Amino acid sequence: MPPARPRQPSLSQLRAFVAVAEHLHFRDAATAIGMSQPALSSAVAALEESLGIQLLERTTRKVLLSPAGERLAARACTVLDAVSDFMEEADAARAPFTGVLRLGVIPTVAPYLLPTVLRLVQDAYPALDLQVHEEQTSSLLDGLTHGRLDLLLLAVPLGAPGVAEIPLFDEDFVLVTPCDHWLAGRGDIPREALRELDLLLLDEGHCLRDQALDICREAGRAEGAAMTTSAAGLSTLVQLVGGGLGVTLLPRTALRVETGRSDRLATGDFAEPAPSRRVALAMRSGAARQGEFEEFAAALRIELARLPVRIVEK
């Protein structure tokens, strides 16, 4: 019959043992952890009894660690450190806007909104450890569903089960053209103009590509009409427009960054109602931090109002 497994030690017993191992003196150890000397001695003795191991060698003059005590003292320190970390994390979880927040952002939002997001976090939530992950929508949703990410900043609607959206703003799409294009500078472009234009799009997988295709379908563009997919990012796409290869659609928040690099580009606005997209935060339905995320969204709307967008209240 195998021997009975030792009883699990208490944290109080481990603290007493670690204190004695550090000070090699019962009175000094008791003082260090605010325990009476008899109580400390009793706790160490109870630990030895429960483990069935002599941890200390006691003489009238000094206290020494036994070979087993030397090995287990390091383990006991590790356990106590882990418990301390656990309690610190629990304290952080109780306090809003502390600890880690893993934020996922799509590439057609990140360069234009992150400066606002980062400034808000630094100014209003300095105890928040913000970790940013830039990925395409499908990857972000997978990360949110499986717990790799906590919150997403992206274009909606998503139509994903188990995901709740917190709307932030709507923004118009703008037509970006070469300077000499017949639509350059227009402020009343009809959507129907998209039927015949040489339209440049992002690669498959980008939600902005799908949104542009939806706008074209609504404008009556034939399903099989030629479209050149030429770029993995908006910066390259805009450079291709500047080179005279076609036109493209940009969200208004991207204009200043992307068109400011070239003097060969022009823009045109669509007639009202202009095609637009909605940007929102997304979280798991019933997320433990839902209240925190909604408060974050409210603060973010105030900051985003400085941008060329239409704020959407929940």
Automatic annotation (TrEMBL):
User: Which is a Pfam family this sequence falls into?
Assistant: HTH_1
Q: InterPro entries, per this entry? A: LysR_HTH_N, LysR_subst-bd, WH-like_DNA-bd_sf, WH_DNA-bd_sf
Annotated ranges, domain HTH lysR-type: 9-66
Superkingdom is Bacteria
> What are the record keywords, sorted?
Activator, DNA-binding, Transcription, Transcription regulation
Q: Which family does it belong to?
A: Belongs to the LysR transcriptional regulatory family.
Q: State the name under which the record lists this protein.
A: Probable hydrogen peroxide-inducible genes activator
Q: Which organism is it from?
A: Streptomyces griseocarneus
